[in-house]
Amino acid sequence: MVESALVDWSRLQFALTAGYHWIFVPLTLGLAVIMATMETIYVIKGDEFWKKTAKFWMKLFAINFAVGIATGIILEFEFGTNWSNYSWFVGDIFGAPLAIEGIFAFFMEATFFAVMFFGWEKVGKRFHLASTWFTGIGAAISAIWILIANSWMQHPVGMEFNPDTVRHEMIDFWALVLNPVAVSKFFHSWFSGWMTGAIFVIGISSWYLLRNRERRFALSSIRVAAIIGIIGTLAVMFSGDSSAVHVAKYQPMKLAAAEGLEDGGEKAPFSVVPGVEVPGVLSILATHDIYGYVPGINNILDGYTDNDGVTHLSAEEKMERGKIAIDAFGEYRALKDSDPSAAAEARATLEENMEYFGYGYINSREELVPPVPLVYWAFRVMVGFGGLLLCLMVVVLWAERRKRLEGMRWLLWASLLSIPLVYLAGQAGWIVAEVGRQPWVIEGLLPTKAAISSVSVGAVQTTFFLFVAIFTLFLAIEVRILIKAIKEGPKTDVE
Amino acid sequence: MITYTFLQQYWWFLIALLGGLLVFLLFVQGANALIFTAGKSEAERQLLVNSTGRKWELTFTTLVTFGGAFFASFPLFYSTSFGGAYWVWILILITFVFQAVSYEFQSKSGNILGKKVFRIFLMLNGILAPLLIGTAVGTFFTGSAFSVDKAAVGDVASPVISRWANNWHGLEAVANPFNVEFGVMVMLLAIVLGALYTINNIDNEKLEKQLRSALSYSFCAFLVMFLIVMGRLLTMEGFAVDENGVVYMESYKYLHNLLDMPHTLVMIIMGALLLVVGCGTTLLKSNFKRGIWLAAPGTLLAVMALFMLAGYNNTAYYPSTTDLQSSLTLANSCSSEFTLRTMAVVSLIIPFVVAYIAYFWRQMDKKSLTTEELESSEKY
């Protein structure tokens, strides 16, 4: 019997690792672009000030980078340690992008990071600049491949089930790589890193201005970061828009949960907060058509017909067909050596019902609904803070260009205090993506509870608390070192 | 003709190659094991930390890529071993996690735990990581307690395919002396490589003397361990597979493999010779510092040969002691032909990656590391 406690603790452990990993990664993605831009200005202008500015942000980048690596290795291996069934059942598809990520991205990051950090006196100026860019590009390539893997979990494509090997097998590599979900997910996540980097730089620079320190450094950093941050946020919005369309199409239950939409329809309303709705907006967001039909939770469970005229079965029908598929699978395995013709028949039944195989593990229709309040509020935190931060960056850039920023202390305070908000928005985004996908680990294909390893609950609890302690310790140390380094400052004050 | 079988063998070759590169790059760990013994003064310790500090990410990345490549090419190993030998892999991961932050944190102000503690983390990773990885690889020859039943997927109440047969979840590997000896051998090899690397990479007379002394002890101990392990390996029963995929025990299986595949014999002898010449010349000639560049190819050859002995010539590379027929072979644990073929195309980039790493390595290491350089430039 699969213990639900084991599933819960395994999920919690993965969520912990992924959540911590995503504290460090977006800053790496965004700060890389910002400091590479600064170094580019240095190479073009030849002004030592920009070199010192870039080097200061690189110092903070390096402190943060190390913890990202530490949490990342755990994530990769947890697919095996805690999701062993998953590793076999879909490893034929899922393993490939992970290996490619290592070969293409990690070596690039590792090599160029060392040149960037230690190579100032060892390689030429332009060579060094290229290394800085390649460190950032390596990080972005890494994001591409891991998000291709993640997108496949949201919208599995390019594979078929093989009952002899008992797994899904890849039949179309390019379908996996060019998965539309992957394209928008990459841009959405990568540019959200730009936002994080920008808000981080603006917030810390504002602190210097509040302290009346490092004026030129702070104002210059704010200018670069605000431009990159605004570009990033606009790109996050555009990619978020296409993400919403994909979610509506491929994961309607996630959308319904994110909207708390019990009963859908045409001209579906967008819920700003509970009780405040804007009619028709959800239909526009989800289908780019005000009359587009958006199913609610109950519609999905009862069965509905979508905008393309495709009829979706009710929860009970899907579960029924799932059970037929799983029974046919068992029959095929039992008969394939002794009675080939009966086995062929069982296989045909399996193939006919394969689409619903995962539903065979589901016991009740309630199981098919993700935790609505969590997904609903996470979505609002993500979108709300994202919008707020965009406004902030626009005002900051405007004030900086008008040379009024230093006088607007409230704005400097707001910038400093917005640093936690950008992290909350990022975490909330992943909660929408991952919790919203429940009960599936692979949408519609494999429920989370069937993906686990056969280890004891006690073992997972032990590692969970161990990781809580280790990651929290690292985070505390990182924050403290960052604060010390920031207080010490970039020492560019030679104005 | 590129057949499915060829692709399986090719991917095992890549696993062996990554394994060999990983063991070579464990010089980072080996040098860290010596931080407090070979490094007597603060300046010497700082030199050691900064010397490997410019390379540790390559080791780390190779480990991650080794995992990723195993996942992509032999996913049943990934699910069976990682999910089963849970504690062994978790311990290995934890030592690496502490290592990953320790370089960056150790000398920064505000690091809470202090410089010494972070260096102890580096030292612990330096000793434990090679030891544990070696012990885990030892089970490739001695087997582990697990069973695999792919039909379990059809059992809705209990769908897990791979199951470990005891609650030790991998820790029981230490009960078999061969696994431990294998681990100790890898650990000693890492120390040998660490000493050779730092002798070459750091320009400091006093430290070099201490490193040479550490090299002499660790190299002798390694040789003894290597002979013990090889002696046992070539006389032990092994896990053979017949043409129908049935696994059975065969006396002197790994000796037979060595004789059936003479290239592995040549690789092991060449590997051992290069190591002996690299270490021997370093120890005998006080002005010879390039021993690492003999030991590196030596390590690569020997480790690759060991992987080949474990997986080629109809051998189960991850055997089960509780259910012989659950043993993992290249054929029953690999990815689909399509995936192996696709990934084989991807693997063509590997020489390019190795080339740019080598190029930048040379660029960065043209001059040996000195205390003066640490004073004037970026450092950990």
Give the tags:
heterodimer, A: mainly alpha, two-stranded antiparallel ribbon, 5% strand, B: 380 residues, two-stranded antiparallel sheet, 16 helices, 4 strands, 69% helix
Strand content of chain B: under 5%
Biggest β-sheet of chain A: count, sense, barrel?
2 strands, antiparallel
Low-confidence stretches of chain B: none
* Share in helix of chain A: over 70%
CA radius of gyration of chain A is 25 Å
Oligomer: heterodimer
Strand order of the largest sheet of chain A: 1-2
Total beta strands of chain B:
4
Shape field of chain B: globular
Mean pLDDT of chain A: 96
- As a whole number of angstroms, the C-alpha radius of gyration of chain B is 21 Å
Question: Can you tell me about this structure?
Answer:
The complex is a heterodimer of chains A (495) and B (380). With 495 residues, chain A is mainly alpha-helical. Helix content of chain A is 72%, strand content 5%. Chain A is built from 17 helices and eight strands. Chain A has a two-stranded antiparallel ribbon. In chain A, helix 1 (4-45) packs antiparallel against helix 5 and helix 1 packs across helix 8. Chain B has 380 residues and is mainly alpha-helical. Chain B has one domain (8-375). In chain B, 69% of the residues lie in helices and 4% in strands. Chain B has helices spanning 4-25, 27-33, 42-53, 56-73, 75-84, 86-106, 115-142, 177-201, 205-235, 253-260, 262-284, 292-311, 330-333, 337-347, 350-364, 371-376; strands spanning 146-148, 162-164, 238-241, 247-250. In chain B, the strands form two sheets. A two-stranded antiparallel ribbon of chain B has the order 1-2. In chain B, strands 3-4 form a two-stranded antiparallel ribbon. Chain B is globular and about 65 Å long. In chain B, 58% of the residues are buried. The model of chain B has no long low-confidence stretch (mean pLDDT 96). The chains are: A mainly alpha (495), B mainly alpha (380). At the A-B interface, helix 2, helix 3, helix 4, strand 2 and helix 12 of A face helix 4, helix 5, helix 6, strand 2 and helix 14 of B.
